[in-house]
Amino acid sequence: MLQSSSSALRTLPLKKRICFPMKLTCFVSSVFIFCEFLIYYVVIFQCDWPEVKAGAHMDNGEFSASVLKALFLADTHLLGEIKGHWLDKLRREWQMERSFQTALWLLQPDIVFILGDVFDEGKWSSPQAWADDVRRFQKMFRHPVPTELVVVVGNHDIGFHYEMTAYKVKRFEKLFNFTSGKLVTRKGVNFVLVNSVAMEGDGCAVCSAAEAELAALSRRLNCSLQKQNHSSRRCSDMEKLPASAPILLQHYPLHRKSDAECSGEDAASPEERNIPFKEKYDVLSREASQKLIWWFHPRLILSGHTHSACEVLHAGRIPEISVPSFSWRNRNNPSFIMGSITPADFSLRKCFLPHESTVFALYGAAGALLAILVLAHFQLLTPPFYFAQRLISKHKAV
Hints:
- The chain is α/β, with parallel strands linked by helices.
- It has a single domain (46-51, 65-226, 236-358), classed as Metallo-dependent phosphatases (Purple Acid Phosphatase, chain A, domain 2).
- It is built from 11 helices and 11 strands.
- A 6-stranded mixed β-sheet has the order 4-5-6-7-9-8.
- Helix 2 crosses helix 3.
- It is elongated and about 105 Å long.
- 35% of the residues are buried.
- Belongs to the metallophosphoesterase superfamily. MPPE1 family.
- Keywords: ER-Golgi transport, GPI-anchor biosynthesis, Hydrolase, Manganese, Membrane, Metal-binding, Transmembrane, Transmembrane helix, Transport.
- The chain crosses the membrane at residues 20-43, 360-381.
């Protein structure tokens, strides 16, 4: 006969009755610490910086003495007060905070770029809600002084083109020191930051100002790329920049029909890949894409927005990398891009974060093991020997 749990507990020695809860507590604590803290170190520790030739000579004869180590992530989508459930916020934001802080500690990048949609409800959040979202963002993505954080604007930060206002744009620009055509130059590497939401091409006030900034920046970069002895008169009074073809950073991808040609474990799902993209909503228009390529002749383009990975070639020679979402809310397998970059060369590598399904599986396995241990401790599980013995006795009786 099986004993009841209360009678079984009374028959246990006092020492065992005291030690068992302590062991259970240690077991539960260990699982929790691993799943919520240590797993990020275990996974991200496997990532390392791609190799690139350092000390490369640039076209103008200058010499690059070091490699710029840059991280690129996208679409954090911090939930707001309207659509954000507190538990969803807690879970997703903890995942991103631990991922980001662990990556900073292990990889020590020089600069980090977030490619838009930092907030989920920036397009309609009130001043008070915006301030709360900003406070949480600054806590999650805090960083040491040697590491620089640069943020590009996305449609969820200021709204799609039909929702975008000068107030929302200025609010974002003030927070992140962002402009619609900003140049960031580090270690001789030029990055062009684009407000892709403003590339509508309809002459709206924000759009016109953004295109004017980009056109002026294009002239500066093109003048810097010209040979010293071939500089035209119009470049004579232009401030010289490092003679390095720029890297274009924006939220919307350049124009492509769909994700049909994309592949990899973090590409869009098979049923989503063949869905045609809508211009000026999923991707930039064909005209805006051609304009950016003509203006800047970039050597690399990095974008977000789709939440999935994709690699495409524009004009047969310019690679564009779509960076997947950094949040479990949008992907089971979020990731970021690591780039080793010099003025003349670059090398990229993807670093995956812990899978949400793996963490759930670990909790499930730990819960099942915990239940078995508790039942075995209170002698509520029939030992296999006695179970087999009863089967044999029953068979003989028949």
